[in-house]
Design brief:
The protein is built from 11 helices and 50 strands. It is globular, with a radius of gyration of 30 Å. A hairpin with a 6-residue loop joins strand 48 and strand 49. The chain has 984 residues and is mainly beta.
């Protein structure tokens, strides 16, 4: 027996100090009395710089129970990372998803953002807006002491991290007594920028001090970053499966799929709903701040009050152009590949457009917390913690609009459109206009429609926690300590959507090209557009686009498209034109109790440490949904179908409730096989709660139910959480100071997987003009004249037959069939399994200053999407292999670090914006990025540095069931930073 006591002995103090933030693993990160008091009495010399931070992170990993990885402040500061997500991707098993060219959310061991819990100093943080997922892109690294990733179950940690729990440990003044101050300034150059400033600033300050013999402490951090950049994108909103194919002559069709005995093609076929290109100019500002006050009236009590806040605001102006497709008799020719994907399509009808978008989105977060930590005596310690945290997203931060606005101009005066993806990385979309060319003249550009959407979201958590620890100094048994406590958590998530509807037309009927003068439009060639992709740039078709002023387009339509001219379609920028369209609130109250024990003993001369615990949680869910009463669907132009609502429908609310409880046991065992070799085994249960959108009850139908897009959704507040039974095995070899190799195996058996089932449903009173008797009459008349029955021709024929109302719209009739809606609803389904391996190597080459780190994660399981099946599926999103590489040199004041982050292709999610009812997938292609940072210490106070991000100008690409089903291609560009840091 060689038990290691955890009371305030010199051994415990030395271990905790050598680990820096490692106390957050040995005991809750907010319980710092022991460390704070010890730091007043013991002088500890630590190795600084990249080498020192790697040693501390390695020691934390070695001393922890379970599987824990970490990254410390010094190391984060010398990565060229723009936020915490990008710092976390350096950790084994962690990969990031990106937004606007930056890391945004994390995936751990193949489990995406919704399966991972973010905590701040042990406190559960609300998701960003109306979600559970926390966008780490909004958090800078200043003021962060350590990032801890708990990959195995822990009874004393809040639930929700099925993949992992990430704890952000902030700096506190008692951790470093005395006065400390650091100020940093950076100049950022984003090579993609075209409209904003070529150089934007970033500056930060970190200050802490203790007073009156370290009785009082104050800490302050502040950071502000500005970034101007451009995103270029090609995009398809969705693929339609098994659309009606016309009978065409053999010269118009290439279809390599096999034939059955009856001469019919075997397999599915798929066509794109649209094809769009866009250029988006963005301005982003991010501000973070934290104030921490600490008070130690006596050595055994520490009171900590902290306030953390962040604000990120992103303004976007974009111009886009593209085509819209409907299918049936207007397909003139096509070429499919072996899996039935359209590589080429010649389609008549519909329209092509030039779109301008403007939005400003503000994300604000704040957290205020109070912690009282009392070391009662050598055996007892108690901590009481309370926090109130809030996260809001507001897409109406544009002072002029108060919403996200979209203006669509264009024309339906075309002969046909050509979709072509037979060569290159990007599909082409060529339009043959009735003017006899492939270029639309400015005088022919007409008003289609505009729409304005306001959809704020808010997530709020109020949480009270009690944590107690008893250290065994009374009984001669291998029990070292017992931790127990409980918490009460109230989480409220709410959001609503106000939608103006399609204002000002829609659909070129009637036509108003006279609204816009020719000089309002500026002609551009595609020159350097998406030039990092084969087939982009000057090779792209169409090889031109128009830009126009967003404000001028709105002003002209407001002045011209009045109620006298267009009736109910009067132009308006008010998202509340007909009130709030939908509103959801989900409230969760969770009561938790936990017990965790630690044991230490020898088995056959091997030192063994065991941690065993149990957590119990009971959760009540309340869903409150605003319901609208749908009245009918009008056909208002050839390509626009608009839902009409009954008066007063916006005042109806539906309340539904659900509840569940869960037991989460865990046990960890760590064995020191030798002084350098550590083996671990961990078993336990973790859980993640259902996505918010799934819990919100009630039913909603799309407001623009075009053919092929008659969709709706219905929530389920009785969904059970995902439950995972986890097994981890690892072997770690610590062969030198700061150097180690590790190999780990993990397996997760997940119950209650949530599958969204889409059911074909009809709703009394909602009749379908499509394929009704009047519709069929129009088709017969058109085909009787030997003409092609496109949607434009059918719509105009029905008006000619007198089936339009006084405003030129076609309303449904009781003789029409009922609309068939594809209603999606989530349900708990079967169990699925994921397993994988993690390997890591970190090596410091003696005193040479050189070091290298490599890690990789390989995951697999029965949770993948079956691309050959049109049956709705419940795969695991985010599952992918990943790897990281870093090499550095640090000596004589110079440090150079080169990093590479790689992630294999992965499933982003199920369902596409304009995809068919089989809920097709969205995949992200393989991504790999090189970064570099160079730091030089002029003296002990001043450091200058340079950073480069995305040096290889990596691009992003996404696809559907097959790589040939293009979904998006995005291009940003490298970023470079010069800066200086002053410390004392």
């Amino acid at each position: 027996m060689k038990p290691t006591t955890f009371k305030k002995s010199s051994l415990a103090v030395s271990v905790s100090l050598s680990l820096a933030a490692g106390l957050g693993v040995a005991m809750p990160t907010w319980a710092q009395t022991e460390q704070d008091n010890a730091e007043k009495k013991i002088e500890v010399i630590q190795v600084k710089g990249i080498r020192g931070s790697l040693i501390r992170s390695m020691d934390l990993k070695r001393q922890s129970s379970g599987v824990v990885d970490a990254i410390s402040a010094e190391e984060m500061g010398k990565f060229p990372d723009t936020n915490l997500a990008e710092s976390l991707q350096r950790i084994t098993g962690v990969s990031v998803s990106r937004a606007n060219g930056e890391g945004s959310q994390i995936t751990v061991r193949g489990f995406g953002p919704e399966f991972n819990l973010i905590t701040l100093n042990g406190r559960q943080m609300p998701g960003t807006g109306y979600t559970r997922s926390y966008n780490l892109e909004n958090i800078a690294s200043e003021g962060v002491n350590t990032l801890e990733v708990f990959k195995t179950a822990r009874a004393d940690v809040p639930s929700g991290g099925l993949g992992a729990t990430v704890n952000i440990v902030t700096s506190r003044p008692f951790q470093r007594p005395g006065q400390h101050f650091t100020v940093t300034g950076k100049a950022i150059h984003d090579t993609s920028n075209e409209q904003g400033d070529d150089v934007t600033p970033e500056f930060s300050a970190v200050y802490s001090n203790t007073f009156d013999d370290d009785m009082f402490g104050v800490g302050f951090t502040f950071s502000h970053q500005e970034r101007d950049f451009q995103k270029q994108q090609a995009n398809i909103q969705g693929w339609q499966a098994n659309v009606d194919l016309p009978s065409l002559d053999d010269g118009s069709v290439i279809d390599p799929r096999p034939l059955d005995a009856d001469g019919n093609r075997v397999g599915n076929h798929f066509f794109p709903k649209d094809m769009n290109y866009s250029i988006e100019d963005l301005e982003r500002e991010r501000t973070n701040g934290q104030v921490t006050l600490q008070y130690a009236p006596i050595d055994d009590i520490v009171v900590t009050l902290d306030y953390t806040a962040s604000r990120a605001i992103t303004g976007s102006n974009s111009i886009g152009w593209g085509i819209w497709n409907e299918f049936g008799g207007n397909i003139n020719g096509y070429e499919l590949d072996e899996n039935g994907t359209a590589l080429f399509a010649d389609i008549s009808g519909n329209d092509a457009s030039f779109t301008a978008n403007r939005s400003t989105t503000e994300v604000t977060a704040r957290s205020v917390g109070l912690n009282v930590d009392w070391q009662i005596n050598d055996q007892w310690q108690i901590a009481v913690d309370y926090h109130d945290s809030n996260n809001e997203t507001d897409n109406g931060a544009d002072d002029g609009l108060g919403s996200a606005g979209q203006v669509i101009l264009g024309s339906d005066q075309l002969i046909n459109k050509i979709y072509d993806y037979r060569e290159g990385d990007i599909p082409h979309a060529l339009v043959n206009w009735k003017n006899g060319t492939t270029t639309l003249a400015p005088s022919e550009i007409d008003s289609n429609f505009s729409q304005f959407i306001y959809s704020p979201g808010e997530s709020d958590i109020k949480q009270a926690q009690l944590h107690s620890e008893w250290y065994n100094d009374s009984f001669d048994i291998p029990l070292i300590r017992v931790q127990f406590g409980g918490s009460h958590t109230e989480q409220t998530m709410t959001g609503f959507t106000a939608w103006s509807g399609l204002r000002g037309g829609p659909g070129f009927n009637p036509a108003f090209p006279e609204i816009f003068p020719d000089n309002m439009f500026t002609y551009h060639e595609t020159g350097d557009l998406l030039d990092q992709f084969a087939g982009g740039g000057s090779d792209l078709q169409p090889g031109y686009y128009y830009t126009y002023d967003f404000d001028e387009a709105i002003a002209r339509q407001l002045a011209y498209l009045t109620e006298d001219v267009v009736g109910d379609n009067v132009y308006s920028i008010d998202p509340f034109f007909d009130g709030i369209d939908s509103q959801n609130t989900v409230e969760e109250q969770t009561q938790s109790l936990y017990l965790q024990t630690q044991w230490e003993f020898d088995v056959a001369n091997y030192y063994v440490q065991v941690n065993a615990g149990l957590r119990y949680e009971q959760t009540d869910v309340t869903s409150i949904v605003r319901q609208r009463v749908e009245q009918q669907v009008n056909w208002e132009s050839a390509s626009e179908w608009i839902m009409q609502y009954a008066e007063g429908g916006t005042n109806n609310f539906l309340t539904q409730e659900g509840d569940y409880d869960i037991l989460l046991p865990m046990i960890d065992a760590k064995v020191d096989l030798t002084d350098d070799l550590v083996a671990r085994v961990s078993w336990g249960k973790t859980m993640s709660r259902a996505p918010l959108g799934n819990l919100a009850g009630g039913r909603s139908l799309t407001g623009s139910p075009k053919p092929g897009s008659r969709t709706g959704a219905q929530g389920n507040p009785n969904l059970l959480p995902f439950e995972s039974t986890n097994l981890d095995l690892s072997l770690e070899y610590y062969y030198s100071e700061g150097s180690y190799a590790s190999l780990g195996y993990f397996k997760k058996d997940v119950d209650n997987f949530i599958q969204t089932t889409i059911t074909e449903t009809t709703i009394d009173g909602l009749h379908d003009i499509l394929d009704g008797p009047r519709y069929r009459e129009a088709v017969a008349a058109i085909e009787g004249r030997g003409e092609q029955a496109t949607s434009d021709a059918i719509y105009n024929e029905m008006l000619a037959l007198g089936y339009g109302n006084g405003e030129g719209k076609i309303e449904p009739s009781s003789d029409d069939p009922l609309i068939v809606w594809n209603i999606s609803q989530p349900q708990n389904t079967d169990s699925k399994a994921v397993d994988g391996f993690e390997v890591a190597l970190q090596h410091l080459f003696g005193e040479s200053g050189f070091g290298v780190g490599v890690n990789a994660t390989f995951v697999d399981g029965d949770v993948e999407f079956d691309s050959e099946s049109l049956v709705q599926q419940a795969p695991l999103t985010g599952l992918s292999d990943s790897a990281n590489f870093q090499a550095f040199y640090e000596k004589d004041g110079l440090s150079v670090k080169v990093t590479y982050a790689w992630r294999d292709s992965y499933l982003i999610g199920v369902g596409q914006d304009q995809g068919s009812s089989d809920a097709p997938p969205q995949y992200s292609d393989t991504y790999g990025q090189w970064d570099i940072s160079v730091n030089y210490d002029i003296d002990e106070h001043i450091t200058v540095f340079a950073e480069g991000v995305n040096l290889n100008n990596e691009t992003e690409r996404g696809y559907g069931r097959y790589e040939e089903q293009f979904l998006f291609a995005r291009q940003y560009g490298p970023r470079y930073t010069l800066g200086a840091r002053y410390s004392f």
